[in-house]
């Protein structure tokens, strides 16, 4: 029956492309949108269009922003001698929520994964090294996820950053192995940042 409704089929197909959304969940969401008022459905569509039109990556730290550079990179009150490296913008948000880090950030947009053919050239590692080579940074906190890929990325980064004479630290292991930072509570992230160690 759904095949006879091309617009509904298309919405289900598009929603099924979202992470963690299977075909059944996509159909449930599509039917929810169908039940919404036209104003609510239009507001959702406009929010998506506005997101795509206005949000971009900061040319300094590669986090999401509506202005370039982002507000964190513009903030003169932040400690520019410390840079926290994270895998994704969501991880930066998790650390910011904990209010335990007052330095600046760098977002890699992924982690090293040879099985998925993700190498150093596929991440924002070159801009990070270029930024560090300009001087003024005393510590790089590696806040990659505690997964096999995150650990491999942290070890790789430590190896290329140490020769620059910069202290390399890693989040303390208060965060469960295999977890993503965006799902960890603020208190745990706070303890992990405060208990960071040299790698």
List the helices and strands and how they pair.
Layout: H1 6-15, H2 23-35, H3 38-54, E1 56-57, E2 64-65, H4 71-74, E3 79-86, H5 89-98, E4 103-107, H6 125-133, E5 139-142, H7 148-161, E6 167-170, H8 186-194, E7 197-198
Parallel strand pairs: 3-4, 3-5, 5-6
Antiparallel strand pairs: 1-2, 6-7
Helix pairs in contact: 1-2, 5-8
Fold and architecture overview:
The chain is an alpha/beta fold and 199 residues long. It folds into two domains: 53 residues, RecR Domain 1 (Helicase, Ruva Protein, domain 3), CATH 1.10.8.420; 135 residues, 3-Layer(aba) Sandwich (Dna Topoisomerase Vi A Subunit, Chain: A, domain 2). 43% of the residues lie in helices and 14% in strands. The strands form two sheets. Strands 4-3-5-6-7 form a five-stranded mixed beta sheet. A two-stranded antiparallel ribbon has the order 1-2. Helix 1 crosses helix 2. It is elongated.
């Amino acid at each position: 029956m759904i095949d006879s409704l091309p617009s509904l089929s298309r919405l289900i197909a598009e929603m099924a492309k979202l992470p963690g959304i299977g075909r059944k969940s996509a159909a449930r969401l599509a039917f929810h949108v169908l039940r919404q008022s036209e104003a609510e459905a239009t507001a959702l569509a406009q929010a998506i269009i506005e997101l795509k039109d206005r949000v971009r990556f900061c040319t300094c730290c590669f986090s999401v922003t509506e202005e370039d550079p982002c507000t964190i990179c513009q903030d003169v009150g932040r400690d520019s001698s410390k840079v926290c490296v994270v895998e994704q913008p969501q991880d930066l948000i998790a650390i910011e929520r904990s209010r335990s880090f007052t330095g600046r950030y760098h977002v890699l947009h992924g982690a090293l994964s040879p099985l998925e053919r993700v190498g150093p050239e596929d991440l924002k590692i070159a801009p990070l090294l270029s930024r560090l080579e300009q001087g003024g940074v005393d510590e790089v906190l590696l806040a990659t996820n505690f997964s096999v890929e995150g650990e491999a990325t942290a070890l790789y980064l430590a190896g290329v950053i140490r020769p620059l004479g910069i202290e390399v630290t890693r989040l303390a292991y208060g965060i469960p192995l295999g977890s993503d930072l965006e799902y960890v509570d603020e208190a745990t992230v706070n303890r992990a940042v405060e208990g960071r160690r040299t790698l």
